[in-house]
Amino acid sequence: MEELKILVINNYGQFCHLIHRTVRDLDMDTKIVPNTTPVDEILAMEPDGLVLSGGPSMERVGFCGDYVKEIDLPILGICLGHQLIALTFGGETGSGEYGGYADVDIEILEEDDILKGLGPKITTWASHADEVTVMPEEFIHLARSEICEVEAMKHPKKPIYGVQWHPEVAHTESGEALFMNFFEVCEKHKKA
């Protein structure tokens, strides 16, 4: 796979730098960018894909909603990034019953694109202090667990994906495979 330019959007989550390191270690050109960077500046960097990091609060997501609506690139939202994608497209989020980080067994419903080759079940590292409670209309449901119905989803037409868990941490099975699948989506989009 060719080297792609992947921007990691910093939503002030504790794992943002770990996402960056994981992407770099998978031989991609990557940079952490503040979520207050205007859309035109993001586009001027000529990225091939964006990763929206997790973070502590929906009040501190900067321009992430604009990136999701206005930038025609593959986007992977992780934890808060996943929830932000849901809200941007008319879904709903709320407090989960399980705050704090823990192992969560994920049932993969649809192996298309980013979850290709990962099913039928994986163990992940996730927090459910907040979670997607209502998936946006027409979104495709990719994964669920016993504690959260919407663990992963994708936009029906655009290459926009969200996962509640953290693929960048060692506790998550097949986390690097998920990133590689996302990079494959980015490569296809670049050539289209």
Fold and architecture overview:
There is one protein chain. By secondary structure, the chain is α/β, with parallel strands linked by helices. The chain has a single domain, classed as Rossmann fold (3-Layer(aba) Sandwich), CATH 3.40.50. The chain has helices at residues 16-25, 39-44, 64-70, 80-88, 175-191, and strands at 5-10, 29-34, 49-52, 75-78, 92-95, 101-108, 121-127, 130-134, 140-144, 152-154, 160-163. The chain has a 9-stranded mixed sheet, sandwiched between helices. Strands 5-8 form a two-stranded antiparallel sheet. A hairpin with a 7-residue loop joins strand 9 (140-144) and strand 10 (152-154). Helix 3 crosses helix 4. The model has no long low-confidence stretch (mean pLDDT 96).
For the structure shown, list the relevant keywords.
192 residues; alpha/beta; Rossmann fold; nine-stranded mixed sheet; two-stranded antiparallel sheet; 5 helices; globular
Ordered list of secondary-structure elements with their pairings:
Elements: E1 5-10, H1 16-25, E2 29-34, H2 39-44, E3 49-52, H3 64-70, E4 75-78, H4 80-88, E5 92-95, E6 101-108, E7 121-127, E8 130-134, E9 140-144, E10 152-154, E11 160-163, H5 175-191
Parallel strand pairs: 1-2, 1-3, 3-4, 4-11
Antiparallel strand pairs: 5-8, 6-7, 6-9, 9-10, 10-11
Helix pairs in contact: 3-4
CATH superfamily: Class I glutamine amidotransferase (GATase) domain
Strand order in the largest sheet: 2-1-3-4-11-10-9-6-7
Low-confidence stretches: none
- Major beta sheet summary: 9 strands, mixed
Structural class: alpha/beta
Total of domains? 1
Helix-strand pattern: EHEHEHEHEEEEEEEH
CATH class: Alpha Beta
**Fraction in helix:** 25-40%
What is the typical, i.e. mean, pLDDT? Answer: 96
Number of helices: 5
Number of DSSP strand runs: 11
Distance, first to last CA: 16 Å
* Alpha-carbon Rg, integer: 15 Å
- Residue fraction in strands: 25-35%
CATH topology: Rossmann fold
Shape: globular
